[in-house]
Write a sequence for this structure.
């Protein structure tokens, strides 16, 4: 009898555990679907208030395109601005500082009051082995989490560098958990005519970007949820 009672209790306990796990999974899925459904809407509710903006820079052409985009951005609307570039990228933040210094000279406002500049570890350097990249990816993820907790941006602007992926993933998780709602706006490079970059493809397929902009009409036809905005360069 005791063995029978023990088996019954074990079975009931297992069923209860599985039921609890199933309920949690269903609630998480519902929350994820809710986040995806509501994506792209937050800014319209606070049209008159400045929003803290995280700007993710990449080396070479990515930074040039982003700076061209920032040149026509409403600076008083997207304020303060936080610039992030890879730790091994020595030029992108310098170019961003030059842009902010020119804006400060025109407005008379100190750069320290409107912009901050930060670096983030890369998940993997060019030529690095995949074995050692496991460790560097872990470090980069922890660093990205710390930066996101510190900045807590309302808007994220990015246009292709791989460094944007951990930051955007963490931002999406924060949305699901209700920690912070960060609207993610991804602008695909003008060099991408027929296919999205890997970063753009991940954000598109995983429904993480609130809005994904492309600069070629044939690219929008292939990815119908993207928004064609014409050439920005």
């Amino acid at each position: 009898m005791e063995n029978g009672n023990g088996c019954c209790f074990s079975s009931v306990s297992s069923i209860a555990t599985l039921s609890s796990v199933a309920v949690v999974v269903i609630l998480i899925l519902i929350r994820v679907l809710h986040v995806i459904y509501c994506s792209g809407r937050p800014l319209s509710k606070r049209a008159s208030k400045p929003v803290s903006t995280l700007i993710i820079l990449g080396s070479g052409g990515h930074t040039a395109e982003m700076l061209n985009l920032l040149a026509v951005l409403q600076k008083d609307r997207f304020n303060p601005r936080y610039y992030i570039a890879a730790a091994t990228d020595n030029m992108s933040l310098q170019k961003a500082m030059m842009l902010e210094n020119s804006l400060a000279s025109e407005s008379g406002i100190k750069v320290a009051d409107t912009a901050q500049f930060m670096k983030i570890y890369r998940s993997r350097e060019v030529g690095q082995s995949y074995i050692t990249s496991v460790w560097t990816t872990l470090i980069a993820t922890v660093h990205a989490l710390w930066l996101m907790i510190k900045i807590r941006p309302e808007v994220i602007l990015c246009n292709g560098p791989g460094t944007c992926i951990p930051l955007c993933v963490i931002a999406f998780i924060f949305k699901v958990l209700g920690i912070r709602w960060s609207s993610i706006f991804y602008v695909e490079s003008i060099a991408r005519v027929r296919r999205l970059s890997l970063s753009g493809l991940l954000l598109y397929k995983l429904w993480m970007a609130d809005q994904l902009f492309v600069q070629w009409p044939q690219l929008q036809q292939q990815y119908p949820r993207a928004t064609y905005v014409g050439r920005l360069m």
Remarks:
- The CA atoms of residues 100 and 111 lie 6 Å apart.
